[in-house]
Amino acid sequence: MAEGAGGPCARFTGVFDSGVGGISVLRHLVRELPSEDFRFFGDSAHAPYGAKAPSEIYELSCAIADRMIADGAKALVIACNTATSAAAPQLRATYPDLPIVGVEPALKPAVLASGTGRILVMATEVTLALDKFHRLSDRWAEGTEVETVACNGLVERVERGNLDAPDVIELLESLIGPYRGKVDRVVLGCTHYPFVRRQIAQVLGDVRLFDGGAGTARQLRRLLGQGGLLCDEDRQGSVSFASSIDTPGELELYRRLFSQPC
Q1: Domain boundary among 174, 191, 210
Q2: Is there a catalytic annotation at residue 9?
Q3: Are residues 120 and 191 in the same domain?
Q4: What is the pTM (predicted TM-score) of this model?
Q5: 3-state secondary structure the chain
Q6: For the chain, which end, N or C, has fewer CB atoms within 10 Å of the first or last residue's CB respectively?
Q7: Which pLDDT tens digit goes with each residue over 39-58?
Q8: Residue 231 bears catalytic tag
Q9: Among 9, 151, 190, 231, the one annotated catalytic
């Protein structure tokens, strides 16, 4: 779907992330809901959120959400695991009548999938530290060996683009190389990480990768349907991009990542 394509719809769904990572979720949203209009905002000037204090993540997320709602958003997707953990409950309390969908590490489908080895969860420091992840782990990972690794530096590297450069593999080797042959399922607990799926598989070998984008898209469809907010299915939706780094090069990176296959 090209940026700006499509006719009118009642209102748009706002999608935001700390940077480019949420575009991996946006691709699932467009695939699931091709008739909808989406506006994506990446806060690349403040990326990564995963190394910030939860209070700062909350303030940044609320400022973005407030702007989108003021512009007429009919729903919000927090396309960031860290921001979902830090800000989703408060945003839902502030806007109780607005459909708000977050993302979370896809630990449940990874646990339910067949496998013989341990599960590796790749995420940011904040995501792994907050109660939301621990509750998720307590609920679904009982009796399953789960390893976690805080992938410091990986978000920043994805934000720079050029993901086929040798230093991407070098960074992944340092972060997850020790788990090669020791895990068979990997949870991509940050929306930036699906953009380096191929590189992660190159480092770890024969593993299954799980991310929460498809589940987020299904949940948005359900909530829009419940609220009578779905656009007519016979129209072509639109996608637009904005960034806190408002340069042609940054927006071109957004469009290029969006055009990659899911």
Answers
A1: 210
A2: no
A3: yes
A4: 0.91
A5: CCECCCCCCCCCEEEEECCCCCHHHHHHHHHHCCCCCEEEEECHHHCCHHHCCHHHHHHHHHHHHHHHHHCCCCEEEECCHHHHHHHHHHHHHHCCCCCEECCCCCHHHHHHCCCCCEEEEEECHHHHHCHHHHHHHHHHCCCCCEEEEECCCHHHHHHCCCCCCHHHHHHHHHHHHHHCCCEEEEEECCCCHHHHHHHHHHHHCCCEEECCHHHHHHHHHHHHHHCCCCCCCCCCCCEEEEECCCCHHHHHHHHHHHHCCC
A6: C
A7: 999 999 999 998 899 999 99
A8: no
A9: 190
